[in-house]
Structure formats: structure tokens, C-alpha cells
Amino acid sequence: MIETIDMPRCTGCGICDWVCPADVIHMTPAAAAAEVPGLTPRALLPVIMFREHCITCFSCEIFCPEKIIDVHPVVKNRPRAW
Amino acid sequence: MSGFAGTLIETDVLVVGAGAGGLIAALSAKRHGGPGTRVTIVDTWMVGRTGHAAFSNAWMVVVEPDDDLEAITREILAGNDWIADQVLVRETLAGSYERLKDFEGLELQFPKDENGRYIRRPTRGLDDTRVLCPVGGGLEFCWRLRRGLEAEGVQILDRIFVTGLMHGRNAGRGGAIVGAVGIHSRTGEFQAIKARATIVCTNAITFRSGFVRDITGTGTLLAYKAGAALRNAEFSYTRPGTPRFYFEGITFAIQEGARFVNAKGERFMQRHEPRWGDEADVPRIARAMAIERQQGNDPLYLDMSGVPEQTREYFIRSKVKWMACFYGKLAKETQTDMFGPTPYYPQNQMTKMGIRTDHTCRSDVPGLLSAGLAQAGAANHFAGFHIGLCIGNGWIAGRSAVEDLDRLAAPALDPQEVRALHHESARVRDDRAEAASDSVLRGLQSLMFAYDVSVWKHASRLESALERLAALEAEFASLRAPHTHELVRLRETEAMLLAAGIILRASLYRTESRLSHFREDCDFRDDANWLCWVDVQDAGGTPRLVKTPVPTPIVSPGDFEQAKVKREVKGAT
């Protein structure tokens, strides 16, 4: 299951959102530091919106160009026959 | 009806679902139809980065020109316990080498030895069949196919979740399908896609188990509602696995020395399956595990300690990217030794229920075709034959769709139907609601995965499960979705509930044991009465089940002798 995105190093490229086959990560408007006084910058940054629906496919971690996403390999709530 | 708005897209061939079957169907339609043919492929998520194939090694059966096509066809048909469309299977195998060349044309690479021969492997439960996989596994396979589709002018629509099929002005439920409607899986925007031919490739119902839990098989149930018959609902692929993490590649781990053992340390597969032992086909392993459980020999393990040191390194490195992440972290974060005894249970259930088609992949409903595992061409999918069949039936479906373009009348939409489908697509949306479909899903999983219902069946337990299913359906009826994410999940759960009822009824109906359908109260194969498919059609909201004899134009059970296993099988006595 996805654990963390190292946000200070995130460039906001959005690849993690696109490659997720479970709709877990959403690019979301976020406030950014003002470079020009009077202009309010807006940026899209990833948010782990539905962590409990992560399928542990590692796609976000594999395709993140900055290598800042960590997926834990242990799967929770996996249905069993007994 | 207020709030009606959306987008209308027109195409010639619409492909719904972008796993191996859908990607190949789109490629085939474009190549058979030529540049002027409009082909559109949609998927709930990103085309080329989703579907079962993307997260597998993409092992595929390939029959090379000097292989014995007839022998391979026969053993695959026999391995399906004769529940297969023989003509479709042979055509799939016969075309597999040509498809391999198509893939190389898309810059996919396949490993070769120093003499330039493809490096292929045997697969569990088969003697003559050989499989191979592309460099980079399924992610590379699906991505190269996406790029190929883009280059050839196929329209790719990511994030479209299809919620209904349209009959348009073709009156009556037997009328032709004229496309599909759906919603954008992020924004919820309504989409209508008008098409002359629609190919459903949405895999099978999995009840969100397994390692690709985004596969929910909803298209199959949409086809059922639109008048198509389903078949093979009583069969499933209950794949054993580890309870806490995923492990892909068990077929080849066993060939390298992995063993199944029970709590007493016994290699129980030798007792249940003396011919193939640990190399028995997956359903037989699930059956053996269920009986071991019933006899009190649980816990069960996969003991990987027999895999030689030098092979372990190759084994780990040869896996696809996500497996590399998985292995790399297991040692570090969970201190789990993969190469020791690991608890193992039957758990990963992919049903085999698919759309009934003829060997050209056309369903009973004009304009509606099917490919991939949404098509009920075979009920058993050996490692490599899963994707092998998807490649074969995808190619055939794309070709058939193009052939139909001139035969089918120009599609005409029915505004009233479109509005009704629009309403239906968002009917359960309520911004104030709690997202609660997971609760019904867990109840459904617990109902359908119980080993004495899903693997080792009995009439009394199946009937009891049907009663419990009715309670879950009642609970589900009150659920609403506060956002699009939950709306998609609700629609998927709705399809799973419908599928569960069909699966339980078909399991009750077949009063014998065959392939992956094991009845404790009918523990015998009955060719005299059950060399048949169980076909299911919607009869006014109730599933109607009928037997359809399986044609055997190529080989029949009486012709096929149970020859001795030709190659050395490490798990057998």
C-alpha cells in the first residue's frame, strides 16, 4: 500500500496520478510560495486521496521520475478462502 | 430530466477495456479496416497502464512453425476438460507466431539464445506447449501496444468508465448495439460513444481479489443486461497465494524446486495429484488445499528452500519491475525470507464467466463482440494461455468487427434511451452520503471466497450462500456515492452482486465435477450428461440457465488418451 510521497521534492508532473490503476492519487490544487507580490500562485500537487484502495502495484513508485514515492509491499485486507 | 449534458463521440469500432484483449482488438480492427476506419479504445484508467496483462510477466503461448500445432491444441483442449471453443483455440494458437512478429514490429523484444531461437519455457500441467514473455514484462507489452495504437491512428480515451450499452433505435432487446455510454472516471462527465461495432474486453469478475484489484469485469454484466448470454459462470481460477503480499511467477518457482507442504510437513500434492504433483494445474492445487483444510492439515506452505541459490538470483532479477520493488523491500521491511516456508492459501479468484460468442467472437446480439477474458472461449487458462487466448480472440474480434461494418445498419441513437442511461449512470450519486460500498464488498468476498463455497462446493452450502447474497443485495440497495470515485466502485459492486448470483446458480446447476468446478456431493466427471456449457440469459430480471452441448470438431474426450507425462515433473512421484 502507498505510504508516502516526499512532497518537498515533488515537481508536480502528475505521472503518479496518471499511472495509478486504482484512482488513489489525485493531482490537487495547492498553494505555492509567492514569487511575485500580489500574484497568488497555484500548483497541482499529488494527494493520496484513497489510500485504502491502493492495490500495491508499485506503478507510482516505478514511474515517478524523482523516485520520491514509497509503496510498502505488505498487502492488507486481502480476502482468503479461510 | 434535469442536468442532462455530456459529450457525444462517433466511431466505427469501439473497444471497451484496454487489457491484452482490448489492445489487440483495437490493433486488429485498425489494421483490418485501414486508415479510414475509425477505431476508439476506452478504459476506466490509463490505456497501457492497466489491466491484468500490464502487471503480469506477459507470458504468452507461442506456437512456432516447427511445433506440433495439433498436439498443442489437443492438450490445451483436454486441459480445459473439454470446456472450450475448439475452433477458436486452434485459430488462436495457429496465429500466435504471426502475432509475435506483429509485436516485434512494435519494437517489443523477446529473449533469444545464441542461435537466435526464442527462449521459451514449459508451463504447468502441459507437455508440448511452450510460453515466452517480452523483455520488460507486461508493463512494456501494454505500453508498446498503446504507442502502436497511437501511431496507427486509433483514438485513445483514458478514464472512461462504461456504464451501459445502447440499442439506439433498434427496437427491442434483440436489436443491434450502437455503442456505449459512460462517465469520466475522475470528473463524472457523461459520455456517449456511438459505434457500429462494440467489442467488450473488460476481463472477468474478480471480486477485487488478486493483485490487480482494479479488474472488476463490469462489461460482461452490461452485455448480459443488453441481451447477451453468459457462460462458464461455474468455473473460476482460484489461485493460491501468500496472504500478506503478492507473488507472481509461482509456475516457474515450482519448476525450479519450490514445494507445497502441509502442517505435518507432508508434500500433499503428491497424494492428491500423483501425475503432476506440485506442477498440477492451478485449480487442482486449490482443490487439494481445500481438502487439506477440511481434513485439518492447515496451515499450508509454499516451501521455496529447494530453489537453488544460483537460480534464486536469476529468479528475482528476471521478474518485472513491480516484482523487483517487491523483492527489494521484502527483505528490508518485512524480514520475510521468500526462500523458506511461506504460508499459502487459495485466495485469488478470477471467475471464468464470460460472454457467449461464436468462434468469430460475435455475441448473440448484433453489433456486440467480445474478446480477452470477457469472452468465454475457454474455461481454463494455463500460465501463458491467459494472455495467449486474449491475443488470439482480440485479433479475431477486431477482424470480425471490421467485417460487420458494412453489414450493420448505420447506428441511430434514441434520445430517450440516452437520457435514461444518463440518469442511470448517476442515479446513486448523493454528495451528503457516506462512501460505504467497501462494507458490502467485504461481505461479498467473505461469501464468495469461502473455500467450501468457491473451491469445494456442495449444494446445501451453495443454497445457503444464495440466501446470504440476498441480504447483501438489500444492504447495497440503500448505498449512495458522495463522489465519482465511489460512484464507480458502487457500479462495480453492483455488477459483482449480479455476477455472484449467476455464479452460485450455475454452480448448483452443474451436478458433476469438472475443471475448476468441484462438487463434494458430485465428485465425478460425467461426460454423458455434462459435456456441455451452462449458458445464462436474463429472463426478466432472473437468470435462466440452459445446457448447450460443446462441439468437438477437432478432438473429443474419447480420442484423447491420458498419455504419460513426457517431460520430467519435479513435483510428481
Write the layout of secondary structure elements.
The complex is a heterodimer of chains A (82) and B (573).
Chain A: E1 2-5, H1 15-19, E2 25-31, E3 42-48, H2 59-63, E4 69-71
Chain B: E1 7-10, E2 13-16, H1 20-33, E3 39-42, E4 60-61, H2 69-79, H3 86-94, H4 96-105, E5 121-122, E6 130-132, H5 137-151, E7 155-157, E8 160-165, E9 179-184, E10 190-194, E11 197-200, H6 218-225, E12 230-231, E13 236-241, H7 250-255, E14 259-261, H8 268-272, H9 282-294, E15 301-303, H10 309-317, H11 321-334, E16 341-343, E17 345-351, E18 354-355, E19 368-370, H12 385-405, H13 415-425, H14 437-449, H15 451-454, E20 456-457, H16 459-477, H17 484-509, E21 518-519, H18 527-530, E22 532-539, E23 542-549
Parallel strand pairs in B: 1-10, 2-3, 2-11, 3-7, 11-19, 20-21
Antiparallel strand pairs in B: 4-6, 5-6, 8-9, 9-10, 12-18, 12-22, 13-17, 14-15, 15-16, 22-23
What does this structure look like?
The complex is a heterodimer of chains A (82) and B (573). Chain A has one domain (2-32, 42-71): Alpha-Beta Plaits, CATH 3.30.70.20. In chain A, 12% of the residues lie in helices and 26% in strands. Chain A has 2 helices and 4 strands. In chain A, the strands form 2 sheets. A two-stranded antiparallel sheet of chain A has the order 1-4. In chain B, helix 14 (437-449) packs antiparallel against helix 16. In chain B, strand 9 and strand 10 form a beta hairpin. Chain B has 3 domains: 7-54 and 138-235 and 349-420, FAD/NAD(P)-binding domain (3-Layer(bba) Sandwich), CATH 3.50.50; 252-346, Alpha-Beta Complex (Flavocytochrome C3, Chain A, domain 1), CATH 3.90.700; 428-519 and 539-549, Fumarate reductase/succinate dehydrogenase flavoprotein-like, C-terminal domain (Methane Monooxygenase Hydroxylase, Chain G, domain 1). The longest helix of chain B has 26 residues, at 484-509. Chains A and B meet through helix 2 of A and helix 9, helix 11, strand 17, helix 14 and helix 17 of B.
